[in-house]
Design goal:
The complex is a heterodimer of chains A (412) and B (85). Chain A has 17 helices and 13 strands. Chain A is an alpha+beta fold. In chain A, strand 7, helix 7 and strand 8 form a beta-alpha-beta unit. Chain B is 0% helix and 71% strand. The chains are: A alpha+beta (412), B mainly beta (85). At the A-B interface, helix 1 and helix 4 of A face strand 5 and strand 6 of B.
């Protein structure tokens, strides 16, 4: 069963502020003249506002359009309540992102007795309204695998509840386009069309061999063959390959005095993520985009692993100083890659290495207890004020970390 | 805003738990009676816990914070209803 909160952040704001209900509004990370909509209410979507649209564009489209700054703690609370409700139905719950998750009901038949999944779906909707608020709406999709459950959840938005199984699979595919399938964007559509596949029904009827050899030219084709007919291929855990942080500058500049505090803050946030995952890194990528429209990137693999903020910053700065210094930076980022499980548990023969490890541990402990970045390098302080906490869109694994919580009570 | 305010609360019984809600508040000499709870959520400030209540009196929305450590109520923001029209 796939559960999806409708326009999650915007609906959360309407739940919190009754005076905003029924009004077109958007949520952005940081209110400014150039800020973008990261979530729009249904009323705004109905009048053409899309995610990624700038504030001035939205206000031209809808005079009186309201933009609010994101409130991560509020969304985190809603996420926690939703996860708690979902976990009361099955021990196997995967929260895919801040506003959607999957309940795996396999093995719970004796627990739920003769209650149908549709009945359980309506029960979850009712509990979300009772436990979070009367304005909250969710889409529920039921299917034999995650893919079809997600498709079902998107069938009748908002507040829908649908099942896709062998009884209506063909009818459902006949009612949609290729790009309505999760994971099929325009470039995959073009590939499918070049192989004579124009509709989801054509896609369903294509052989595994055609999809593997002609369309996707990899095992992905076989996965699609399985996925479309309800077999589960999307339950494999993904391996963490890299961690990083990026930032669109609040003040466009080429000046080190403005850039470096923000850059150091990004390095320290990346270090936190690295240690949170219990990893060391060997590689660093730094990049920047410029006002001219150009972009620049530099990467380097180092001989030894690293995890401390100071080491990350030193390595990243070495690369970052190679950028075209005269160009005005619009956005920048850092990524640590070639990750391996940390070797920090073993004491080093060298006192200086141990001292560095103890320092990193002590700083993390203080920050965890009192607040994120209570202790940080002096230079990163200015960056801390400029770079605000963003909402983690993809996974939710950093939510607890970034909100400064040490208790992992979602998955525990 | 961050103004310390006087708040009268109600403890409502729900699912065998008594949950606390602000019922009314004294602000700038006026008594504001809350008619709806928008959302309540905890917010951590390090290891300190603050409870955030988004309340409405039917016209304006109010954000109140209850500090569970020092037991104080703070009015953080008012969203005036006519501004959201």
């Amino acid at each position: 069963m796939h559960i999806d909160l409708n326009s999650a952040f915007a609906t959360a704001e309407q739940q919190a502020h009754p005076s905003l209900r029924g009004k077109p509004l958007g949520v952005t990370n940081r209110l400014s003249k150039h800020c973008c909509v990261i979530a729009a209410s249904y009323e705004a979507k109905a009048r053409g506002v899309k995610v990624g649209m700038r504030l001035d564009e939205a206000q031209t489209l809808i005079p009186g359009f309201i933009m609010l700054e994101a409130d991560p703690q509020k969304y985190h609370h809603i996420y926690q309540v939703l996860a708690r409700i979902m976990k009361s139905y099955s021990p196997i719950v995967h929260m895919k992102s801040i506003d959607e998750g999957v309940i795996d009901f396999r093995g719970t038949e004796s627990y739920h007795g003769h209650q149908s999944l549709e009945r359980i779906g309506y029960d979850i909707k009712k509990r979300v309204r009772e436990d979070i608020g009367s304005w909250m709406r969710i889409n529920v999709g039921i299917g034999p695998n995650r893919f079809l459950a997600k498709q079902a959840a998107g069938w009748h938005k908002p507040d829908g509840l649908d099942t896709i199984d062998w009884r209506n699979l063909h009818a459902y595919y006949r009612s949609i386009r290729l790009t309505d399938l999760t994971g099929i964007a325009s470039h995959f559509e073009a590939r499918l069309q070049s192989a004579g596949i124009y509709t989801p029904i054509d896609f369903l009827q294509a052989t595994a061999d055609t999809l593997r050899r002609t369309v996707f030219r990899s095992v992905i084709g076989e996965d699609w063959h399985q996925r479309l007919r309800g077999h589960e291929v999307d339950d494999q855990p993904t391996k963490l390959g890299s961690v990083g942080r990026q930032f669109v500058l609040d003040v466009r500049s080429a000046d080190d005095e403005t850039i470096l505090p923000r850059f150091q803050y990004l390095c320290e946030t990346t270090g936190k993520k690295l240690r949170y995952n219990g990893c060391d890194a060997r590689g660093v990528i730094v990049w920047a985009t410029f006002q001219t429209g150009d972009s620049w990137q530099q990467r380097k693999m180092f001989k030894t692993t690293f995890y401390a903020d100071r080491d990350i910053y030193q390595r990243a700065l070495y690369l970052f100083n190679q950028r075209p210094r005269h160009l005005i930076i619009v956005s920048m980022g850092i990524t640590c890659y070639k990750l391996s499980p940390t070797a920090r548990q073993q004491s080093s023969l060298f006192a200086s290495v141990n001292r560095q490890e103890w320092l990193a541990e002590a700083v993390d402990t203080i920050n965890e207890r009192y607040d994120s970045f209570m202790v940080s390098s002096a230079q990163a302080l200015a960056g801390k004020h400029a770079v605000q906490q963003k909402i983690p869109f993809g996974g939710t694994k950093y939510f607890e970390l970034l909100l400064g919580r040490s208790d992992h009570n979602i998955d525990g | 805003m961050r103004q310390r305010v006087e708040v009268a609360t109600l403890f409502r019984l729900r699912d065998s738990r008594s949950l606390c809600y602000p019922a009314k508040m004294k602000h700038e000499g006026q008594e504001i009676i809350f008619t709806e709870l928008g959302l309540r959520h905890p917010a951590s400030k390090g290891h300190r816990m603050v409870h955030v209540f988004d309340m409405s009196d039917g016209i304006n929305d109010y954000r109140l914070e209850f500090d569970a450590e020092v037991l104080t109520w703070t009015l953080v923001a008012i969203l005036e209803g006519q501004h959201a029209a």
